[in-house]
Amino acid sequence: MTSPSEINRCPWCLGFPEYIHYHDTEWGVPVYDDRIQFEFLVLESAQAGLSWATILKKREGYRKAFADFDYRIVADFPDSYVEELLQDSGIIRNRLKILATINNARRFLEVQSEFGTFSKYIWGFVGGKPIQNALKRGEPYPATSPESDALAKDLKKRGFKFLGSTTIYAHMQATGLVNDHLTDCFRHRELSLQK
Questions:
Q1: Three-state SS string across 14-46, please?
Q2: Chain segment 18-48, per-residue pLDDT in tens
Q3: Closest by CA position to 100, among listed 123, 80, 75
């Protein structure tokens, strides 16, 4: 039997066990569930200027603070709750990011109203199926793409906050709109077979 250390993985995930688990089970898996799409939008926007490791370690705190990522509840958060969230050490205590999350929940509902689901909207930017990149070990990961540029521009036009092209590209990687596992990573082939 192969031990976890003998499996080829993307090198960015090798820092701590939660990172490896996230890489092996979530990163790059196509997401069509709106609640999970919202969860990653919240986490990615919170990450701006920070490491993904920091956000992963606070994921449970975000889950508790933001109603298990139920965007309908978050959209109705009163202003008074913002002050409470600013005291919550389980999340990044940044007023602008917290306000952006509440704003984005409201905009998320508007997109759902227009397209039926947020998932249908976001997957439309990649033609409905994951972009399959072929990154080799040692090559830099892209920070943006024409698709993330277009999506970020459209989200901004719709009033979303803290979701520029770089953040959106990370969201696309996380939710499987793009497969950026290295070609020699064991997950690349597994995910390239998914539709």
A1: CCCHHHHHHHHHCCCCCCCCHHHHHHHHHHHHH
A2: 899 999 999 999 999 999 999 999 999 999 8
A3: 75
Whole-number Å distance between alpha carbons of 52 and 64: 19
Residue boundaries of the structural domains of the chain: 30-192
Please enumerate in sequence order all residues whose Cβ is within 8 A of that of 149, keeping only pairs 6 or more positions apart, or say none: 165
CB atoms < 10 A from the CB of 152, how many? 21
CATH number for the domain running over 30-192 = 1.10.340.30
69's tokens: 């990522």
Distances (CA, A) of 146 to 120, 143, 152, 166, 172: 19, 11, 10, 11, 12
Report yes or no: 104 and 161 within 8 Å, Cβ to Cβ: yes
Distance CA 170, CA 167 (A): 5
Q: What residues contact 158, with CB distance under 8 A and at least 6 apart?
A: 107, 110, 111
Q: Tell me the per-residue pLDDT of 142-165, one tens digit each, with 9 for 90 and over.
A: 999 999 999 999 999 999 999 999
Could you give the residue numbers annotated as active site? 22, 44, 52
For the entire predicted model, the pTM comes to 0.94
**For residue 10, what are its two tokens?**
């993307």
